[in-house]
Amino acid sequence: MSENTAVRLEEVRLGLGEARFAFDCTFAQGRITAITGPSGSGKSTLLNLVAGFEQPDHGRILIAGNDVTGQHPGARPLSLVFQDNNLFGHLDLFTNVGLGIHPGLRLSKDERQAVSVALKRVGLQGFEKRMPGTLSGGERQRAAFARALVRKRPLLLLDEPFAALDADLREAMAELLLDLHRESGNTILLVTHDRAEVERLADDVVSIDQGRVLDEAGKMPFPHKNMPG
Amino acid sequence: MVSLAVVSLLVALPTVALLSAAPATQGLSSVFDSYTLSLLRFTVLQAVLSTLFSTALAVPVALALARRPQFFGRIWILRLMALPMGLPVLIGALGLIGIFGRQGLMNQMLLTLGLQQPISIYGLSGILLAHVFFNLPLACRLMLAGLERLPAEYWRLSASLGMRPLCVLRFIEAPALARILPGAAGLIFMLCATSFTLVLVLGGGPAATTLEVAIYQALRFDFDPARAVSLALLQMGLTACILYAISRLPPADITGAGEGRASRRFDGRGPGARFWDMAVIVTATLFLALPLAAIVTAGLKADLWRLVHLPAFHQATLTSLSIALMAGLSAILVSIGMIAAKAAVADLRNPPSALTLLSGLLSAQSSLVLLVPPVVLGTGWFLLVRPVFEVSRAAPLLVAAINMLMALPFVIRVLAPAFETHARRTDRLAASLNISGLARLRLIDWPILRRPLAMALSFAMALSLGDLGAVALFGSQDLVTLPWLVYSRLGSYRTNDADGLALILGLICLILTAIGTAGHREAK
């Protein structure tokens, strides 16, 4: 296992209903890797395997060199941002972000401070008491990033995090993501449909089709025929 | 318009009759004598306790079921939970007596364990037990639906954040339940405060009688209409208070009460949590299944062949079915009228205020019906009809009318969404193709709407078939329905017959409900 591999899927195989998946790939440390492919190709399944929501039928998953196969999602050193519902709708932003530090919300004074700092960093200063329902879609995703920020995990998994936002907002959010990435040097796996997003953000691209990784290299010419509209 | 008039007439006339009869009694002082007050106290007390137990005990069951989407036979447990709602109350009571009664399974077990004081199925404890039997599944299904409506991301997020079961309870499950709880508790409180049959069968004696049963006793045994009137007014006041309180609560969303669509869960994987959930689910399932099994076994012990050939059975079945059909069909007709009237008002761009008021009245109608429980309604009609001609002659019609009103809220809940969707989908297209009248009915409406109609009809018929409240007031030798037959056999200590008849009646009602829900599931 080389020093600069953050995530490794070793001969991972998984069957979900009719679909068969077989992944054998690595993701480089400290880089943003876009995972692309048509709908139903297995992008999200790959992410779920890394996050621990799916268990492989065969093979191993390593994060930072440690075998995490079979580990509970909560025990893995990573943060997640989904397309939607990243915040508990009935809890205010402070609680939502604070839960990223301690899942029972037992926070020290410094940690409480850290929540406010993180909110400020993503442009939501003073939003501690706001409820998710009163925010725009972009603001909610910012809050999700604030939580990822306070968690300080070396790996961030993003499942189409900007797909529900309109184009202008997407660009601004991508900038924010890049800034945060540069500051923390974390590894990011980004599942996306959006070609512009890949070009703007990704250091590497991994394309998936029919449950398999197509190619795995630096910025490759894009496989146009696999891109849905 | 006509439907509104019909319903108003059916509800308002007896209400007015009750109110106008009120001064004839000896004023308020007689309404609030000590016995009446003790009735009121008991009615509220048992409803409060029933609601508390039903909802509190439903919480762990709902949590366990929500956390175990893969639990063995889960779908059947959920269907089992839907059963008590389709089951005539009287029959559920018989099943409970079979398990918890003096000769029941539970007490025999306790006796062999050396316990001296067996559970009593009669009196307050029995009423509470029965109310929990009927309402725990309702509360459980509502809460389960609330938990399953939570976005799937919540469970992934909580797992990824490493939340322990107590944290999941505090931050996710408890807030979700808190949104459901007030509405569910309000609904159950209403059902328990107006519960008639269970109290009639399991209560009794001055210590365990509710207002509804006291009304019935005043009318049927003491021949004291004045007393019945004052009690009926008291009951109306009580339900009005409850309805007002419920209207201030957030509504419980009853549609789509948990069937299958469970979220994947990543929590509760430890052996302790597994064991707890399993124990809770198994206990709840046994609590629901055993009385039902008791109905079946006791029923099969009866001489079913002889029962089926009894002339009394034929007569009662015929009476029950014709009343149920009458009630069901008229409930549907009235509902359609109300839905159509509402749609017509909604179509006007600037509806005059009078029409807006009418539309509001139509919406409020279903709760208006709830305001006057069947026994109260019956009392009013009893008073109205008695001076004109003999009550027994109009009795079948009155029972059917009261059953129709009871079914109305449910029928509207089934039909209104179906009709509205159908109109939205087809109205403009049909108009542009100039399809109208009978052709429209045959080609466009009937194929789509017959399913919700059949469902509403079967629900209404099941409700009417199982009802004992209305027929208890008007029943006579000439008017015996199936539940009344069961009840009178029970009263004359022919328990065997009662068990057998209960099994038959239960099966009829369950088949009707199954037809209804099957249509519902396909429609989804």
Notes on the protein architecture:
The complex is a heterodimer of chains A (229) and B (524). By secondary structure, chain A is of the alpha/beta class. Chain A folds into two domains: 1-77 and 153-229, 3-Layer(aba) Sandwich (Rossmann fold), CATH 3.40.50; 83-152. Helices cover 30% and strands 27% of the residues of chain A. Chain A is built from six helices and ten strands, in the order βββαβββαααβαβαββ. Chain A has helices spanning 43-51, 93-98, 109-121, 137-151, 167-184, 195-201; strands at 5-16, 19-28, 32-36, 58-63, 66-67, 78-81, 155-159, 187-191, 204-209, 212-217. In chain A, a hairpin with a 2-residue loop joins strand 9 and strand 10 (212-217). In chain A, helix 3 packs across helix 4 (137-151) and helix 4 (137-151) runs parallel beside helix 5 (167-184). By secondary structure, chain B is mostly helical. Chain B has a domain at 33-289: MetI-like (MetI-like fold), CATH 1.10.3720.10. Chain B has helices at 2-21, 27-31, 34-67, 74-86, 89-100, 105-112, 124-148, 152-160, 165-193, 197-202, 211-220, 225-247, 271-301, 304-308, 311-347, 353-371, 374-385, 391-432, 437-466, 469-474, 482-491, 495-523. In chain B, helix 5 crosses helix 7 (124-148), helix 13 crosses helix 22 (495-523) and helix 21 (482-491) runs antiparallel to helix 22. The longest helix of chain B has 42 residues, at 391-432. Chain A binds chain B through residues 51-53, 72-76, 78-80, 82, 84-86, 88, 90-91, 95, 99-100, 103-105, and chain B through 151-154, 156-164, 166-167, 170-172, 175-176, 179, 264, 266, 269.
